[in-house]
Design goal:
This protein is an alpha+beta fold and about 350 residues long. About 40% of the residues lie in helices and about 20% in strands. The longest helix has 19 residues.
């Protein structure tokens, strides 16, 4: 069972590029010496995401589970078990415990990486667009079209009215999305009507172009919460609405410039850089206002529309880069649920 065979298996099956960073476990200072001697450990990189590969030739269920937890606790990145064919009876046992693994030349179970499958290299054009991002207002425009009825069109005047911006700003956003081939345009009379381009490969490009709106966070005391209750719930509060995750800190979202205005008008409100106990309220600052974007059209159709939560795509964008370093299985499960909802919205 050669580690190079694993790289080839993953690259050929998932069509992803894997970079080998280290082939010796000595780089994990906190890993017990006995484990370093027992299991070959390799550090790899899948685009920006790092992970550790632990090779297992033959081991009992209890031993593998125990040692996986030890390695996982000793590292800051996800751990993937590489199992020989002789130990494939471990498969169901590991799946039940949500432990990522690859069985030699046969089975791939990577729950923490699954949500990135569509965003990784499935065709060449993605590599060209991976680092390119939309402008802030183009992103808001695209999210608005995705979260409202998919078949609706939007013209320059309508967009300008929705966001209270100039026709020039609205035109620039719609034209930018058209240039990226995310929108199509039809001339109806003298008015250009823009619609989402339903070509599959264009839709796959969307998540590569969007960026997380959250750019910071502060905390307030519970007594000051009434000043923020008109805002939409975000963070773990929204995650608990869209998924099975239990709410942590109650969290609201506000555009950064609007938080400054609110605090200027209410100078008695104190903000803190950290929470000193569980009663504190978290306030996320965003690059754009979450207030205009609806939760999503599916909630509206199902009668579950409350307009109390930030939209599901922006929420996903805020969390997607942290999930790989998150060791909580419940969080990984919640992110998979969220990712499914995002895909449903994008693909319709």
């Amino acid at each position: 069972m050669k580690i190079d065979d694993l790289y080839k298996f993953l690259q050929d099956t998932l069509r992803i590029n894997i970079e080998v960073l280290d082939k010796e476990p000595t780089f994990i200072a906190s890993l017990p010496l006995a484990l370093k001697k027992r299991y070959p450990v390799t550090r790899i990189k899948i685009y920006e995401q790092k992970a550790y590969i632990v090779q297992i030739e033959d081991a009992s269920r209890g031993s593998v589970s125990k040692h996986y937890e030890l390695v996982n606790d000793a590292t800051e990145y996800p751990v993937i078990l590489y199992i020989s064919k002789q130990a494939k009876e471990l498969k169901n046992y590991l799946i039940e415990r949500n432990i990522p693994f690859v069985i030699e030349e046969s089975v791939i179970y990577l729950p923490q990486f699954a949500m990135y499958a569509a965003e990784l290299e499935t065709n060449r054009f993605k590599l060209k667009t991976r680092r390119k991002k939309l402008s802030k207002f183009s992103q808001q425009t695209l999210l608005y079209l995705l979260l409202t009825q998919r078949q609706r069109s939007l013209n320059i005047s309508e967009l300008a009215d929705i966001y209270n911006v100039s026709d020039m700003t609205a035109s620039r956003a719609l034209t930018g999305l058209y240039d990226e081939k995310i929108l199509t345009v039809e001339l109806e009379g003298r008015v250009k009507e823009y619609r989402l381009n339903d070509e599959k490969k264009r839709l796959e490009k969307i998540l590569l172009l969007l960026k997380a709106p959250k750019n910071g966070a502060v905390y307030i005391a519970e007594d000051d919460e009434p000043y923020f209750q008109h805002l939409k719930l975000s963070g773990s509060s929204a995650l608990s609405n869209y998924t099975d995750m239990i709410e942590g800190f109650r969290t609201y979202a506000i555009e950064k410039k609007n938080l400054k205005k609110l605090l200027d008008n209410s100078p008695h409100i104190e903000v803190y850089s950290e929470a000193y106990d569980n009663s504190f309220i978290k306030i996320e600052t965003w690059a754009y206002s979450p207030s205009i974007l609806p939760e999503n059209d599916n909630n509206m159709l199902m009668g579950n529309y409350t307009n109390r939560y930030v939209d599901v795509i922006s929420l996903y964008l805020n969390y997607q880069k942290t999930v790989q370093a998150h060791s909580d299985i419940r969080f990984s499960d919640a992110m998979r649920q969220l990712h499914i909802k995002v895909k449903e919205i994008i693909y319709g």
